[in-house]
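Re: that chain you flagged

S.,

Sorry for the slow reply, it's been a week of failed gels. I finally had a moment to sit down with the sequence you sent. For the record, here it is as I used it:
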Amino acid sequence: MAALFLAGPLRHAPLLAVILGKAATLSPATAAGRSGQLVDAPGHFGLLRKASGRVEGSALRDATPEDMARLAFYAKAIGLGRYKLSLIDAAGGGQAETFALRPPFAKGQVWDEAVWLADHAALAVETAVEVMALYGQTPPACLSARIGPMMVRAASRLRAQADQAPAAVRRGPGQVTVQSRRQPYANFFAVEEYDLSFRRFDGAMSPVITRAAFVSADAVTVLPYDPQRDRVLLVEQMRAGPFSRGDANPWQLEAIAGRIDPGETPEDCARREAVEEAGLSLGALLPVAAYYPSPGAKTEFIYSYVALTDLPDGVAGVFGVEGEAEDIRGHLLGFDQAMALVGSGEVQNAPLLLTLLWLQRERTRLRS
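Prediction finished late last night. Pasting the structure tokens below so you have them in one place:
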């Protein structure tokens, strides 16, 4: 079998270990006549022909057929091609196979390992965990079509690992042992099933039980508030949840909201969504709460804000990203009118209810 040349992200030991399911023994290698490119935010790696170029990488010379099958599965899932090149290493070099984006592709910046490690490595590894969990279960071409949502979910998992809330009353992190994991549905959202046991409060392990979760991205809601005019801006749009439940009126009054994209902070997302959904440039962002809206069944985690914003007459309109079929109408309401909608039951979604009640508590302070 020809040697395998691994460059860019694929030579990162933690990523390669996830892909292969084991640690690999690599040796330094170089591909001459090539230039490495960091192509886009996910950290995809491309190789361009360049007579004077050299790409530093690693050689894997003892790859098994299973190793090659796992690498080929991962490569196809994330959109990499497989092709041949010449390498130079301690074993003398020669022909090798490699995985990278196939030309032509939009050129990015010249490959910089330090940049990739700082900005993309953690997301690449976490995305690979979900991809490789489906090895042997789902065709890689199916995963390629939904790699974007998989990356969004991976970013949410990384955020969950980094942002641990206090545990002054509840128990600290406890033992949960997963016997098996399945993903019976995945597209923009996913459903995951687990056979698991957990450490009970009496110290014993529970029997193995089956639990399922609806997996979605972390999200942001933001309510623009003008303390001088004492008014808020709500948005209205048709929502699939109420429609699927059988609600005769699936149009909902909400705060501005959206999922947090990979590489974004919650604050960045709030400001981007305000432009997309309401044409607004927000002022100071005031955190309301960060929470699971329905932890018994959903992974969704929401960061809610109030944004101090200038809201003159005429600022409300119809907005939305056309490519996402968004049709979003703004409503400029006085604070008392908004609270009357809470009282009448016309406001029906938890983030807006929570945010308006927070604003009711803090309104005097903000207006002063």
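What I noticed first: The mean pLDDT is 91.

Talk soon,
D.
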